[in-house]
Structures are given as structure tokens and as C-alpha cells.
Amino acid sequence: MHAAWHALLRANMLGRFETALSSPILPETFRLRAGNFNLLVLRLLDPRPDAVLPALGDQFRKAPGFLRFAPIVIGLQDLLAAPEEVDFRGLVEGLHALEIVPIGTIGGTPQMRQAATAAGLPPLRAAGGKEAEAEAASAMPPPQAAAAAPPVAPAAAAPPSTQFRGSGRNALLVTEPVRSGQRIYAEGADLIVMATVNPGGEVIADGNVHVYGALRGRAIAGAQNDSEARIFALHFDPELVAIAGYYVVREGLGDAPIGRPAQVRLEGEEMRFGPLG
Question: In terms of C-beta density within 10 A (0-12 exposed, 13-18 middle, 19 or more buried), how is residue 65 classed?
């Protein structure tokens, strides 16, 4: 009974619950529709994680649960620092330790966005809509004596990869599964993954992303604003897809061919999903 209910619930979440109902007389109990969501934006005023993270932790203690597991965008528009002065990797690790999920950046210089992308924070623009934001910790005073952030275990090592050239563009070839917590970035190249991208895994490319397995994590193509880039997957079931900064999360995939071979492209400011072949 539990297995049957789990299968039915999964079918519902994929937007195809009609095929899972064995009896036509059962009443419709809910409908799923794509919607617009405001993401919290953490606007950085200081480039040092050891200054930002303790202050953000103080906000947690004042409002427990407010940001726990919340997807958050890093705002760079107010940050007056050179790209090399911003420890994006340290910031990402510290936010994860606080149980906050950073998904990308807005604003900043091209060099700053490139440094953030290398740390797994691609530049974002909401697909088909205007940016709307609610500032997180906007009135946060500077800490009196910032304690160092607690040590965070490093992410698992990236799977083996090979670089080669084909069709006029470099490509990074990954032959083993991308596990949760891993980020693979193909700088100036396409990314080809010959295995599964697991939930929590992230694959990023300045060019196209090809997944010859199941895409269950996040895929970001055209990371340096290449709107012609595409995402291809033999089994399409992602947490998030993004092209040239425009993104769609799992709940907004609409009529995408979930669980089947698919490709994703950008048309203006709209994501388009279609079958392969």
C-alpha cells in the first residue's frame, strides 16, 4: 500500500497524475501549476565570509527557521571589492553550514560574476519575469568581533574528466556520476557527462551541457551569458536548469518531458523544453 501511494504521489508531482489513477471515478484532489516566486536576495556589503556569516547567524538566532533551507540569491550590486577579494567558495560553504541554499548571483561586474560562477554561483535572471526581491538581513549591523566561521567539510572530489576539442569548441568529458555536493564547471567549453547527475550535484558550462544519463541535479549552460547554449539529457528530471542566467526551478517546469530525453533552449526570456530527436 505504501509503495502504491508513493508511486501515485510521484506521478502527481510530475504533473501527470491522471495516468496513475486506476479508476476514472476518483475525484480530482488538486492541480499543479507553474507560478512566480520571489527569491530572497542577500546583498553583500562586505566581501569577507568571516564577517558576513556570523552576522547572518545572529539573524538566525533572532528568527529561528526564517532562512532554514531557503534558496537564496547573492546580490553583488553593492559590493565594492575586487573579484579576487571575494571568497565565494568560503561564502557558499558557510551558507550551507547555516542550512541556506545559495543558487546564484545578481549584479556585480563581469569579472565578479565569472569568479562566482567558478564557485557554483551562476548569474541569474528570472525567466519571463521581472526581478523581485526581499532583502535578507537588510538592517544587519556590522559585528563587533566577528568569530571565524566553523570549519566545513570540503565537497567530495570531482569525478575523473578529460578535455578534448570537437566541432570548433573545447569540451570537458566526465565519465563518472556527479554526486551530491559536487560541482563541475567547464570554463570556456561544453560539458559532457556520461553518467548521472545526482540530486544536489551541479554541472555548469560556458557552452552546452550534455548529460548521457539521468539529470537529477542542477544544470547551468551558457554561464557567461551565451543565450545560444542548450541543455541535453537522456533522462530529464532536474532540480534547476538555467541558460545565460535565466533559470527555472523544479516547480516551474510545466509541460517539460520529465523522465524522458529532452533538450532545453532559451527563446527570448522564456525557457523552451522539447524532446530529443
Answer: exposed
